[in-house]
Amino acid sequence: MADLTYPLYPIFAFLGVLLALVPLPWHFKAWNSGTCFYILWTSLACLNQFINSVLWHGNTANRAPVWCDISIRIMMGASVGIPASSLCINRRLYYIITSNSAISSNEKKRRVLMDSLICLLFPLVYIALQYIVQGHRFDIYEDIGCFPALYNTLPLYFLSLSWPLIIGCISASYCLLTLRAFVRRRLEFAHILAAHPSITPWRYFRLMALAMTDLLFIMPLATFVIWLNATSSPLQPWIGWDDTHFDYSRVGQYPAILWRRQPRVLAAMEFNRWVVPVCALVFFAFFGVAEEARKNYILAFRKLRNFVSRRYTKDPVRSYIPGPSQTFDDRSKLGVPAAPFSGSTNTDQPQIQTEQPLIFTPYPGAASLSLQS
Known about the structure:
The protein is an all-alpha fold. The chain has 14 helices and three strands. The longest helix is centred in the N-terminal third of the chain and has 34 residues, at 65-98.
């Protein structure tokens, strides 16, 4: 069965990688750690999906098993890493609107540390816990690529499927609290942001809009995946560790003609993979075309132009080659300094000091769909 989204999907996924990374430098400079983690998780998930969609277009061959081991863990991590980053964005916006003074440098460091624990350490722990309900090594779906093979048993819902929804609910709570605080303190809003020079009013509103938009993608997807796993196949009893991991090295391979026949599985797969590049493109739409972004583009272009002009503009001393009949006076007219006097009075053949040659050094997601094992 032909994949109608090829090569459209790989193009969008690759654009998601590049466009999401564009605003990273100025968010990093402003200590927006939650936004930085959102950028990194989204870009990594888009890159993972891009590679999978290219390598397994029209086939289910197990050609890169080590990559699949890495790929499914990226998908697992992104399924909670992106919602966790959105949670940290909403959390930061709430603390900004409810604060009465500027935060100290130590307080900034503590908030960055807390964001790192939520957006980095928690996804790593989440990835490790998925081994408990991983029925076999991985699955390969034609046109999709590597996919986690999670066993549809009761611990799956507590260890895997429920966490994106739980994080989304906490994030939505922060979002509602932020909106309520903003309504109450809207007259003081300019004064509040004056204590946070790294946040402008428009950047604050864009972050709020991004977090709310992200909730519109994450919570429906998490709810749909829980419903799909509960209804598409019978819930299996948890017998024990050995039963769940029996024949663990097995790799499931599913041609497109099989999995595309099931409407619910087809909808879950397509929505599951398209939501990541859409998140990246929405993020770029909020932050990649704003006025501050355009200023950074102009600044980056000027720096690049100056670097290129300095690198390729020749030094007049090095580019000047005197002719046999030219004297020191001729060279001074061209703006080239004369060579030091060597003690000889013969001006027909001036002695020119040689320079040392210059040495140039180079300048350096996805929610899980469980299947029976």
